[in-house]
Amino acid sequence: MTTTTLLHLDSSADLPGESVSRDLTARFAHAWRARHGASGYRYRDLAADQVPLLGPAYAPLGRRVERRGVLSPAEVSALAEGPDERREWALTQPLIAELLAADTVLLGVPMYNFTVPAALKAWIDRVSFPGAYTDPATGRSLLDGTRVVVVTACGGGYGPGTPREAFDFQTPYLRAYFTNLGVPDSALHFVHAELTRADDIPALAGLQPLAAASLAAARSAVADLAASLTG
């Protein structure tokens, strides 16, 4: 499948120029637009334009839908009762449609307190509507042809063999989340930049060379993925 549509999501609270994850996703997106143009590119800054947290009416609508099975968006709309449920669905459905339309999803994910930022979690919670990614005719996942690139940035070191390897609740969570939605594990790509705070945290003093090497490797990995996934 030729990639024609890219959904680019950043979740860092840092501004461009200060955020490692934003820098890395921007490099991928630039390469994608250079090949495909801007018409299929969709960008969301989840930190600056936050997805509203789920309201109390989201769950009753979701349970009602689950009891009916896999429904179309129009059928979900018809089941929404009252203004609160209709508002929840109005906030949710466009984000689901945006995700379903993407051939490739690009996520910029800094590590906050060992896991993903709240801004990204709010998006995840809202788009995870019952049955939204299941083909009612075949039962297959509508995301089985979607590719996901996750770019993570960690202030410390959490790689294999490090003392804090078990503290990384970011990568395992996102892998479990997307594969559970039906994205093949082979279509899920992670790029990691670690020790990004080595210049300003005294406890990381002396690790600057490792930080520089990690960032260089991440930039190289992003470039390689951009070439392979946009080819």
List its salient traits.
five-stranded parallel sheet, alpha/beta, 231 residues, 13% strand, Rossmann fold
Number of strands: 5
Question: Radius of gyration, Cα only, in angstroms?
Answer: 19 Å
Q: Figure out the total of helices.
A: 7
Q: In CATH's first tier, which class applies?
A: Alpha Beta
CATH topology: Rossmann fold
Q: What is the CATH superfamily? A: Flavodoxin domain
The CATH architecture comes to 3-Layer(aba) Sandwich
Spans of at least 5 consecutive residues with low confidence? none
End-to-end separation in angstroms reads 10 Å
> What is the global morphology?
globular
Helix content: 40-55%
3D architecture notes:
The protein has a single domain, classed as 3-Layer(aba) Sandwich (Rossmann fold), CATH 3.40.50.360. It is 42% helix and 13% strand. It has helices at 20-36, 58-68, 73-79, 82-101, 118-127, 171-181, 208-229; strands at 6-10, 41-45, 104-110, 147-153, 188-193. The protein has a five-stranded parallel beta sheet with strand order 2-1-3-4-5, with helices on both faces.
Quick structural overview:
This protein is of the alpha/beta class and 231 residues long.
Indicate the topology:
Layout: E1 6-10, H1 20-36, E2 41-45, H2 58-68, H3 73-79, H4 82-101, E3 104-110, H5 118-127, E4 147-153, H6 171-181, E5 188-193, H7 208-229
Parallel strand pairs: 1-2, 1-3, 3-4, 4-5
Helix pairs in contact: 1-7
